[in-house]
Amino acid sequence: MSNRTPYLAALLIAAVAGLWLHPVPHRFLAGRLYNNVGALYASGVFGENGGASALRWYRDAAALGCAPAAFNLGYAYQNGLGTVVDEREARRWYEQAADGGIALAANNLAILYANPAHGRPRLALARLWLRRAAARADADLAGTVAASLAAMERDMTPEQLAVGDDPERAARVDLPAAPRIVAPSGEAGVRTQVATALAAAAPLREAATRYIREHHQLPLPAVVASGAGFEPVDTATARVELGAGAMIQITLRGGPYDGADFGWIPLYQHGTLKWICAHGHVPTRYFGPQCR
To answer: Is 86 left (phi over 0), alpha (psi -120 to 50) or beta?
Structure first.
């Protein structure tokens, strides 16, 4: 650490204090100052273990529209700096930074979609963000992005390549193919239909279970709405979606119980997680071992 570092740190703190005491309309300036204070904490200027404090400053800066602060938050959550590794949070902040014009954030977001720690790669979304990175990259980054894009496109399906830059289509085409069965008839058919619906719901249950174990709480509606891995799944005979309290809502299609629904519900108490089935409008006799 240079002899000037403590003085620079003091000047930044004084500047931030001045903004609190005498608010100014320049959100950009305030955001940059908060981000710089966060960087000082992260670099150890104020002692070791400053990562958590850095995150607080970065969040305040990002709330003021500071794209570099959003990038720093994404990097921290991606690498577990001052917090636990959380790819969902990393994606959220990288996306905000990329929308603010930071090409490296779009590149890192593409990496997270292409090589997730959990779940299957989502190449259409990864390509979309790599293309955005390429449009903004400087000379140092451009070659890396171009090479990554060419390598990724060799592994993509025609459907994924046809998506282009439409994020909604990219999100849909990346979803795993759901099992499809013929419309059921009789009790055996309904049991097969329910079992197929539960199989289609299994990835949502796994994603919710992982979140609960990592965060020690049920995912909030905002997390469900924004987090990858929580997207609705459609099959020929059921629709599956995650709702409030991480309840998995399953609605049957076709057959004698067309439109009937039931839930797969997490009970989380004192660190113990248990999933139960609530029959709703589907008789319990059709439930299999997954619901016992």
So the answer is: beta
Looking at residue 17, its pLDDT comes to 52
CA angle at residue 160 from 159 to 163, to 5 degrees?
90
- Residue in this structure with the two tokens 């439930």, named with its chain if needed: 287
Judge if 5-173 and 186-291 fold alike in CATH terms.
no
Q: Provide DSSP, 138-160.
A: -HHHHHHHHHHHHHHHHT--HHH
Span 37-89, pLDDT tens digits: 888 888 877 766 778 889 999 999 999 889 999 999 999 999 989 888 888 89
The residues spanned by each domain of the chain are 5-173, 186-291
Cβ 197 vs Cβ 250: under 8 Å: yes
In CATH, the architecture of 186-291 is 2-Layer Sandwich (3.30)
Please state the length of the chain. Answer: 292
Name 17's bridge partners. Answer: none
Question: Which residues, listed in sequence order, are joined to residue 251 by a DSSP beta bridge?
Answer: 239, 261
Q: Which parts of the chain sit beneath pLDDT 70?
A: 1-28, 47-48, 175-185, 226-228, 292
pLDDT at 10: 52
Beta carbons of 55 and 73 less than 8 angstroms apart: yes
Half-sphere exposure of 79 (CA within 13 A, CB side): 11
Closest CA to 98 of 111, 84, 114: 111
d(CA 84, CA 77) in angstroms, rounded, equals: 7
What is the CATH number that goes with domain 5-173? 1.25.40.10
